[in-house]
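subagent[fold] <- orchestrator: predict structure for attached chain, return tokens only, no commentary.
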Amino acid sequence: MSEKVFSTDELAKFNGKNGQPAYVAINGTVYDVSGKDAWKNGEHHGNLAGRDLTDVLFNKSPHKDKVLQGLPVVGKLE
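subagent[fold] -> orchestrator:
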């Protein structure tokens, strides 16, 4: 099975709202954050699921990429 490739428009649909899972892209990899309580309703500290949050994670987050450990990878961002 080939890896799912998301366009930015397609990724935006996975915003954690209306029963949709919450996905975020970091450095071109798309992660499922739906299972994290911190991402309830697709939002975490003002950041929204369904987006590329690479800049936020590496330039504004105190925990950087260590929060990605254990998250399911669901595909790549084109």
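orchestrator: received. Logging for downstream: Strands lie at 5-6, 23-26, 29-32, 43-44, 47-48, 51-52, 73-77. Residues 32 and 72 are 5 Å apart (CA to CA).
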